[in-house]
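Exercise 7. Given the components listed, write out the predicted structure of the assembled complex. Treat all entries as one system.
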Amino acid sequence: MSNLSSINKADISDFEKRVYLALLKVPKGQVVTYGALAKLAGFPGAARAVGSAMNKNPFAPSVACHRVVRSDGSVGEFAYGTKRKIAMLRKEGVRIEKERITDFKEIKIA
DNA sequence: CTATTGACGACAT
DNA sequence: CATGTCGCCAATA
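Answer.
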């Protein structure tokens, strides 16, 4: 099952589908803010709602929900623990220091 | 339909 | 830099 087909078939809201699909575009080693992702998904301003969607995340490893961070540079929450989230991001090459993205200003996607 | 809830965000203190 | 407040949005009760 490819990620894309499972998502499209999944019994979830259109909002969530778009968010998950948009997140698939974010390459490894790069991060997006909840707000930016919301915008990419076509729901500008729905940063908080995106967070809720990530929390549900029915496609755990497939959808890289750990690449979504806060606009202030902090990594934000994670269903399996912030600690875990940071570890995964570092493994992908994202530089983090004290729960904060070091060169966040340069990393953040439009 | 209204009220509550949260992996957020901008700003003030 | 660390909190607190208030606003925001879609999901859910």
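Discussion: The first strand of chain A starts at residue 32 and ends at 33. DSSP finds six helices and four strands in chain A.
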